[in-house]
Every structure is written in C-alpha cells, then in structure tokens.
Design goal:
The protein is of the alpha+beta class. The chain has a single domain, classed as 2-Layer Sandwich (Alpha-Beta Plaits), CATH 3.30.70. Strands 3, 4, 5 and 6 form a four-stranded mixed sheet that branches. A two-stranded antiparallel ribbon has the order 1-2. A hairpin with a 2-residue loop joins strand 1 and strand 2. The protein starts with a strand and ends with a strand.
Length: 104
C-alpha cells in the first residue's frame, strides 16, 4: 500500500499490516493463537487485502473454551482495527474473524 505525502511517498508492505493485526489479536484475553492451516489448504492464519484504499483483514483464531466467543471476537475486531489504523494511518473496512477451534 503506497501513500503520497508532501515530501514523498510511503509504502507499507502487507506483511507489516499482517504482523500488526496478529499482535493486536493475540493481545486479547482468550485468544490462544492464530492457527496456521495445512499447506494443502490455501488459507493462512491471516490474510490482508487492500482495495480502493481500504484494508480488509481475515484472521483464523483458536480461542480458549472458557471465554464468551462473541465478546472475544468483538474485542479482537476492535483492537485489530484500532491498532492498524493508529500505526499505519490506513482505513480498515473489515476485520473478518473465523474461529477454527476451542482449546480447553
């Protein structure tokens, strides 16, 4: 993602946005890990898409079994959106979260 400023341009790699999103998700109580899926499957633990200046983030999570899933996902979405927007200045349109499993 490239942005033009008065004194030049800034390019932020999707991997940088991905790292910020992963770190923000893992900060939330109840998130065990971002699940890396098998290489046979085309999905990863996270995916970043930039379209028309907006960022869409997809996360695959493993949560603890003793948490409220709905509230935990909401906290993850809010924290990821806030952190990415604060640290990069990009606008986050969506944070899609998929819970793949629960760990006891």
């Amino acid at each position: 993602m490239a942005r033009e400023f008065k004194y030049g341009s800034v390019k932020i790699a999707n991997e940088t946005i991905e790292t910020i999103a992963k770190t923000a998700a893992e900060e939330i109580n109840g998130v065990v890990e971002l699940e890396e899926l098998d290489s046979k499957e085309l999905k990863k633990a996270s995916n970043i898409s930039v379209f028309e200046g907006f960022v869409t983030i997809d996360l695959n999570l493993v949560l603890r079994a003793d948490v409220n899933v709905r509230k935990t996902i909401k906290h993850v979405q809010e924290n990821v959106k806030r952190q990415v927007e604060t640290m990069t200045g990009l606008l986050v349109k969506r944070v899609n979260v998929q819970v793949n499993s629960l760990k006891i």
